[in-house]
What we know:
single chain; 17% strand
Amino acid sequence: MKTVVLGVIGADCHAVGNKIIDHFLTNQGFKVVNLGVMVSQDEFIDAAIETNASAVLVSSIYGHGEIDCLGFRGRCIERGLEHVVLYVGGNLVIGKRDFAEVEAMFLAMGFDKVFSPSVELTDVVRMLRSDIALHEERASALALEAAA
Length: 148
């Protein structure tokens, strides 16, 4: 059973979607560590380290994800989580922007996938399983290289 850390970043207190995602992922066989709302980057990272999580799923509904997520991947790398799958989704920016622009911005920040609020959770689970497997393969290959 793969462990994922889930939470709503920054000062965002929107909890309903977070609970739906938790329930869905749990029913799909994931061990979900749900940090709830108003979660800092360090709280996500600490939980991922403590639970040996395969993925961190960050949500933001209030539109400040663009600010709250800056530097997240770098902080993960600094703390030894370079191989963790990092997803972000929700209403990530203020104002109406083309989703392709928003997606490109968050991918450039180092997120593996970026989801709009209307994403189908079955699609997220399919991608999550695939991305976790890919990250684990990369980590194993790097470990073998280092050992050689």
